[in-house]
Amino acid sequence: MMGVIFLFIDGIGLGKPGPENPLSDVKWEAFKRLTGGEGLVGHKSPVQSRNLFFTGVDATLGVNGLPQSGTGQASLFTGKNAAKILGRHFGPYPHSAIRYLLEEESLFHQVMDAGFRPHFINAYPEIFFKTMTERNRWTCTTLMAKSVGQNLNGLEQVQEGRSITAGMIQHAWREKLNLDVEEITPEIAADRLIEVSDSYDLVMYEYYLTDKAGHSKSEATSYEILSVLNRFLSRILDRKRPDTTMVLSSDHGNLENLAVKTHTRNPVPLIISGTGASEIKRAESIMDVPAVILQLLQ
Fold first, then answer.
1. Backbone φ and ψ of 70, nearest 5°
2. Residues 59-96: pLDDT tens digits?
3. What is the CA radius of gyration of the chain?
4. Which residues on neighbouring strands pair with residue 57, listed in sequence order?
5. CA 224 → CA 37, 220, 231, 235, distances in Å?
6. Which pLDDT band holds residue 38 (cuts at 50, 70, 90)?
């Protein structure tokens, strides 16, 4: 049995290389390592070897319009076509008509039903809990974790080094929220993830600043957050246990085209790095990701 680290990187698609696609810059060593040297750009066929699988998977789900986070993440985290069930793309939060997918049929439910232990490592400040509770409008990831009985992480877990903030390096918690935390490096964040993964079969981390940078259309902001992500991914690849496999995917495209402020209809990456990568035979859409993760856990 192996462990799986699932990295959900919001808003990254596979677009054409060029100056408007910061993901395609050759300076991102982690992307090259995770794609067999191709980099995080569009391609025609899967890259597969003994310990690597990289392909583009569909995020449009057969529904017109631009993919959105609510339906995209619900599909990614359940294996069900939330956009088709709803009849349209919707976001950023899960629509009331599809919440049941995350509350009853999520990846975490499936993992637990198979006898494995999932864990969501993200932490949230008190203002988040206050706002979400008052509005009863949880994100897809937090709703999924809450629905299997997991207590969401907060300030205490961050201070103890057992959780990771959504911004990873804790800068926003320290400088904008004035919370008693120190700014950390991406490498320290990666080490926390690796250490926590020893206690669970599946550990999931959500990084949303990629999507935020795409909406900003700012090249400077994009390179800043991609530099952090590159260091984080590189550390995981260098230090993860031999029996731990890393899975990386997204909910929709965005950051790969800074010429537009909206999401895109580009495929998104599905990357598997580690034991079991050579056994993956099929992955066509984001709905296939839960089944891939369950296969890796067997």
1. -60, -55
2. 999 999 999 999 999 999 999 999 999 999 999 999 99
3. 18
4. 268
5. 22, 6, 11, 17
6. confident
Residues 177-188: tens digit of each pLDDT: 999 999 999 999
Can you tell me the distance from the alpha carbon of 277 to that of 288, in angstroms, rounded to the nearest whole number? 14
User: Which stretches within 25-79 are classed as H helix?
Assistant: 29-34, 69-76
DSSP string, 81-94: -HHHHHTS---SSP
- CA 177 to chain centroid, in Å, comes to 24
For tokens 């902001």, name the residue. Answer: 221
Give the Cβ contact number of residue 114 at 10 Å: 11
Q: Which amino acid is at 162?
A: R
Contact 15, 255 (CB under 8 A): no
Q: Provide the CB-side half-sphere exposure for 164 (13 A, CA).
A: 29
> Which pLDDT belongs to residue 2?
80
